Amino acid sequence: MHGMKYIMERKKRMSRSKDLNHLVHLKDEINELKTRIRPEDTGHIHTTIGVLEGRVEELTKSLSEELDR
What we know:
By secondary structure, the chain is mainly alpha-helical. It has one domain. Helices cover 87% and strands 0% of the residues. It contains two helices and no strands. α1 packs antiparallel against α2. The longest helix is centred in the N-terminal third of the chain and has 34 residues. The protein starts with a helix and ends with a helix.
């Protein structure tokens, strides 16, 4: 059983690392998209930014809850 606990903890750490990496890349992409906004014809970029910001919130909440356990 001790071996299984080690494997599960390792998976959690790897998942947390993956999520943190994903969070960084999402924020980078949001910043890049914000530089592409123009006065007209960029509604799709605004929509994409909104969706990505929602995903950042989800990941942030998930990581925060994981740390509180």
